[in-house]
Amino acid sequence: MVNLLDEHERTMAFAEVALGQIRSLRQTAVPRNYEIWYVYATGYNAALNKIINETLARSGKLSESDLEQIYETYLSHIKASDRIDKVGARVIGEIDGVMTLITEALGMSTSYDSRLSGANEQLKNARSRDQLKAVIDGLMKSTREMQETNKALESRLMLSKTEISNLQHSLEAIRAESLTDPLTGLGNRKYFDRSIEMAVRSAQASGEPLSLMMFDIDHFKSFNDSYGHLTGDQVLRLVAMSLKQTIKGQDITARYGGEEFAVVLPNTGLRQALTVADHIRRAVMAKELKKKSTGEILGRVTISAGVSILKPGDDTDSLIERADACLYAAKRNGRNRVICETDREYADETRSQVA
User: Fold this and answer.
1) What are the φ and ψ backbone dihedral angles of 219, each rounded to 5 degrees?
2) How far is C-alpha 242 from the chain's CA centre?
3) Sign of the CA dihedral 92, 83, 241, 257?
4) Are 269 and 310 in contact (CB under 8 A)?
5) What percent helix, strand, coil does the chain show, rounded to 5?
6) Among 88, 166, 268, 277, which is disulfide-ready with 338 (CB 3.0 to 4.6 Å)?
7) Are 310 and 200 in contact (CB under 8 A)?
């Protein structure tokens, strides 16, 4: 009982620290934030504590995007790993059970073969009806036992096949979850990094065009500061919904980080990608933002976009760098616009960076 009480006091102390941090930094007391600060209080995750301390020392607070990035980087993947380990252990358990049954069946088969050989000799030496009957009865008994063993093995194999199939679906679900941004339902940064690498290699091998669009929500920080993080989350979901409604087929859509989004367009030239990007920009601007709690109309959201196209000698980094530079040029030149690497604004931006 003493140990249980000690554990209770210890964990309650961690909980109080977590809630105290949430209260002092005026964060929402949602499970994600509580988990971050509870782990911080325990001190068990040194990397998490280090990044939090550095961020607080630099800016004095943790933004919503900071919290989300910390959670995604230092906590969510651990959960996925734990779940994968559990599923893997169950798969191993199923395999061990089947192997045990197969070993038993092999032993029974060897025994059955031995009995058949012995029965063959007994039949040759049988001199009476009773002797023949005894040999046949023994064979029938051995055959029934063998049939029962085979049926048990078949039944167990069928159950294991179903169980392993279910576990495979679980692994696929965990994998999909680990590559999905929970707030927007789009692919996360990990998904984007994997997907664009594959898309670039495929385009280079086939010679087909490949374009990249990068989007950033204009004045996103002001939404958070003016209306709170829940409204900020609503803005992120609004942009994500516009992307989902516009982007189809083989195109790759992801939340790149914070208020940035990225779309990879295989088999798509620069001009066509510009048209798609502007269509998304207009779709976002057409939606009216309303505060759910009060019904208050908060205005309209706008986004800026940068577009680049894969060139000979490019790699993933250079393709992203040019799209990001185009996006920065769009922000510098008034926002709520799309700029690509052939536009004058992009050339001016790159010249100013060199200078």
Assistant:
1) 55, 40
2) 21
3) negative
4) no
5) 70, 10, 20
6) 277
7) yes
Q: Which two tokens stand for residue 91?
A: 């798969």
Q: How far apart are CA 84 and CA 170, in angstroms?
A: 9
Q: What are phi and psi of 3, to 5 degrees?
A: -65, -40
Output the six-digit token pair for 79: 């959960």
Nearest-angstrom CA–CA distance, 147 and 111: 13
Q: 34 near 18, Cβ under 8 Å? A: yes
How does DSSP classify residue 313?
Answer: T
| Sequence letter at residue 171 | L
pLDDT band at 73 (very low <50, low <70, confident <90, very high): confident
Decide: 265 and 276 in contact? Cβ < 8 Å. Answer: yes
Task: Give which of 249, 246, 208, 230 is closest to 290, Cα–Cα.
Answer: 230
Residue indicated by tokens 């005026």: 26
Q: Please give the positions annotated as active site.
A: 259
Q: How many CB atoms lie within 10 A of CB 161?
A: 12
- Examine the pLDDT at 43 and tell me if it is beyond 50: yes
Q: 245: helix, coil or strand?
A: helix
Q: Where are the beta strands (DSSP E) in the chain?
A: 210-217, 252-257, 260-266, 288-290, 297-300, 303-309, 338-340
| Cβ neighbours of residue 125 closer than 8 Å, sequence gap 6 or more | none
CB burial string 165-183: b at 16+ within 10 A, e below:
eebeebeeebeeebbbbeb
pLDDT digits (tens, 9 = 90+) for 218-272: 988 887 777 777 778 888 989 999 999 988 888 999 999 889 999 999 999 999 9
- 3-class secondary structure, 340: strand
**Listed ranges 138-147, 184-193, 258-267; the one with the highest mean pLDDT:** 258-267
pTM of the predicted model as reported, rounded to 2 decimal places: 0.58
What is the sign, positive or negative, of the torsion defined by CA atoms of 176, 179, 180, 182?
A: positive
Are the CB atoms for 48 and 70 separated by under 8 Å? yes
Name the nearest CA neighbour of 215 among 169, 283, 316, 164. Answer: 283
Q: Compute how many other C-beta atoms are within 10 angstroms of the C-beta atom of residue 49.
A: 16
The torsion region of residue 334 among left (phi > 0), alpha (psi -120 to 50) and beta comes to left
